[in-house]
Each structure stands twice: as structure tokens, then as C-alpha cells.
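Predict the holo structure. Ligand: PXL.
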Amino acid sequence: MTSTPERPVPPVVLAIAGSEASGGAGAQTDLKTFHQLGVFGCTALTCIVSMDPKAGFDHRFVPVDPEVIHDQIEACAGVHTAIAAVKIGMLGTAPTIDVVEAALEEYRFPTVVLDPVLICKGQEFASARAVDDALRSKILPRATMVTPNLFESATLAGVEEITSVEALKDAAKRIHDQGAPNVLAKAGPSLGTGTALDVFYDGRTLEVLEVPAVGTERVHGAGCTLAAAVTAELAKGATPLEAAVTAKNVVAASIG
Ligand code: PXL
């Protein structure tokens, strides 16, 4: 691709994420969001999720062979001369976390956004303590920005549950102290504030970001869209706080 003033080459971003077959979350959502925000997306699939309509839409989860995950990242890094930012979504197993950690070490991508997916649509899919710990110790410190939801914030911060804005602020600080320079701890509509509320913390600035809530339900794929939008905006040169603000507006517009 050649860059011209009329047709500048878009930044390339990589989603290391799971496939969610129905297209409502995961890598499929990431690619749509990347395209919407004018960046070029490529993917390394970590797992295949097929929700089961016969069993309350439970998540049937099949991990991709770690070597194949490695090969996909290698292909993306080889084909594209520069990957401006990486979004990490569902990993789910210890061997997947290990191979992604090794790739982050090898390729030293300049910006890494971690959506620490431990739960989808109310269903905890990776309850194994070892997986939580591996994500916290091996991937979190390599992230430029992390975007946990309430449950994931509680897990990463090591607290029982988060039921107030003050507790969410505290959790964001604890997660920052574990090595993630920018934290966007998401409550969405779940704290009953009548808004979609998230807390941003970068070690100095603590901002409560709110937009009018669209309904009171948690929305499947909203977290993926938010993290993908943050990744796209960072790739285009936004600051982490600017990226968070834009991403919240993108999610609100996509739900409303
Ligand atoms: O929304 C979290 C999520 C992320 N990635 C994949 C998913 C889900 C939830 O269903 O299936 C692949």
C-alpha cells in the first residue's frame, strides 16, 4: 500500500482474540470496530466459541493449538511492516497465555490493549485460578492499557466484589499497581448510576467517565467493541484518556 494525501495508509492493528461464531463479540466484533474507525485489522484466533441455543446459549469453548496461535501472529507481523497496536481478548487457557506472552516478548508491539476476558454474558468461562493468575502475572504487566469489567476488575484487584464507584476507583488503582500503566475499569450500567460508568486511572489522573446509559442490561459484545475502539484510537495517536472517551461514545452509538 502506498500512502498518498488523498489515500493515507491506515495504521494496522492486530486482534489476538477468540472467534464468537454469531458475530456479536470476539474477533468478529474487533474487525468491524477497526474498520469503522479507519484502521486495518488483522487477527490471530485463540479459540472458537459457539454458543449453544439448546442450553441457554452457554459458551462451547475450543482452544486453538498454541503453535497455530504463534503462526498467526508471525504471519501478521511478517506481512505488515508495522503493527501500531494489539488488542488482546479472550485467551482462556494457560498454554494460550504462555504463547501470547512469548509473542509479546518477541515482537515488542508498541501498544497493547488487554481486555482480560474472564466472563461473557454472565457466564464465567475461565474460573480456573491458575488462568486468572497467569493472565495477571504474564500478560497484564505487558499491557499499555487494560479494560476489565466489574467482575474482571474484582478478580484482578483481588477483592470479593465491587458494588460502588469508590470501590471501582480503588480496584483501578490496585490493578495499576500490578503494572498496567493505564486502566479503564468498566462498570457500564451495572452500578445503578443511571449512566454507563467507567473509571480511568493512569497513576496520576483518576477520571470517572459517564455517558447516558442505554438501558440497564449488560450488552453482549460491548466490552469487545470498547477495547477494540480504544486500540484503534491509540493506533491513530490518541492519548489513553482520549481513546477511552471516544471508545465510550462509539459503544453508546453502537447500542443505541
Ligand atoms: O464479550 C466477551 C467475549 C470475548 N471473546 C469471545 C467471546 C466473548 C463472549 O461471548 O465469545 C470469543
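Residues 17-18, 20, 25-26, 49, 59, 89-90, 117, 120-121, 221, 223-224 surround PXL (CB under 6 Å). The mean pLDDT is 92.
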